[in-house]
Amino acid sequence: MNTPTEQVRERLSTASRVTVLTGAGISADSGIPIFRGPEGLWKNFRAEDLATPGAFARDPNLVWEWYNWRRELIAMKEPNAAHQALVKMEGEMESRRAQFRLLTQNVDGLHTRAGSRNLVELHGNIWKVRCTGCGQVTEDHRVPIPIPPRCSSCGEMLRPHIVWFGESLDPRDMDLAIEALEQCEVMLVIGTSGVVQPAASFASTARAAGAFVVEINPDVSSSVAHVALRGRAAEIVPQLV
Ligand code: OAD
Q: Tell me: the pLDDT tens digits for 64-108?
C-alpha cells in the first residue's frame, strides 16, 4: 500500500496539468510571519488600519511605515526548500510538456526569487509600487522607501502594488487562475488558511472540475481536499518532487 505522499507523487508524475495555490504558510519556513493564528500579523495589527484603501486615504504615511517594516523583514529572508521544490516541479513538468501553473496569495516575491516562472501573484507584490495619479506600476526595492514616495513621472504619491481588503483582483489574473483551476488534474493547496476570497474558493472550483486536491498544512484548514499531508511545507513539498 502506498503512503499518501507516494500516492500524491505518483499522481503528479503522470498529470498533464498541475495547479498549485500557495499562502503565507509556504514562506513561514523562511521566517516570514503568517497573518492568522496566535503568532499571526493580524493578531498585533488591525488590517482595517493598514491594508485597506480607506486606511491609505486616511494615513498614507502610517501604511507606508508598516510596508517599510515588512519590506525590511522580507528583504533579509531567502526562499526555502518548498519554494525550490516547486521550481523543480515546474521544470520537470515542462520537460515532459505538461502544464504547471503556480497561483500565490503571497506578496513577498520569494517564488520569483526561487525561480518560478509560470506564476500569478494574485495579491500583488511588495516590491512593486503603483502611482495613485497615473497608475504606472514599477519595481522598487528601496528599504526603507522614502515616505511618502512620489512617482518619478507625475509626482503623485505611490502606493504598494498590493490588493487590499475591499479591492478586486486584476481580472487578467482571475482569468488565468480560473483557467488553471478548471483544467488541472492535480491541485496542491499549500500553507493557506483558506479564508480570504476569492482564493478561498479555488480548491472547490478545481475539485468540482474534476481535480484531485491535496492540502499541505500542519493544521487542518480545508475540508475540500482528497488528501491532507500534515506538516511544514519545507518538509513535505520536496518529498513530492
Ligand atoms: P494565513 O496566515 O491566513 O494562513 C497561513 C496558513 O499557513 C495557516 O493555515 C497555517 O496553518 C499554515 N502554516 C503555518 N506554518 C506553515 C508551514 N511551515 N508550512 C505550511 N503551512 C503552514 O495566510 P493566507 O491564507 O496566505 O492578504 O492569507 C491570505 C491573505 O490574507 C494574504 O494573502 C494576505 C492576508 O491578509 C494580502 O496580503 C493582500
A: 999 999 999 999 999 999 999 999 999 999 999 999 999 999 999
Domains and CATH numbers, the chain: 4-31+78-123+168-240 (3.40.50.1220), 33-76+126-162 (3.30.1600.10)
What DSSP character marks residue 83? Answer: H
| CB 18, CB 96: distance < 8 Å | no
| Listed residue (159, 18, 158) closest to 98, CA to CA | 18
Distance from the alpha carbon of residue 217 to the mean position of ligand 1, in angstroms: 10
Q: Output the CA–CA distances (angstroms, integers) from residue 230 to 68, 183, 233, in the order listed.
A: 33, 26, 9
State pLDDT tens for residues 135-164.
999 999 999 999 999 999 999 999 999 999
pTM over 0.70: yes
Q: How far apart, in whole angstroms, are the C-alpha atoms of residue 48 and residue 54?
A: 8
| SS3 state of residue 101 | strand
Which of 123, 141, 161, 226 is labelled catalytic? 123
Q: Is 123 a catalytic residue?
A: yes
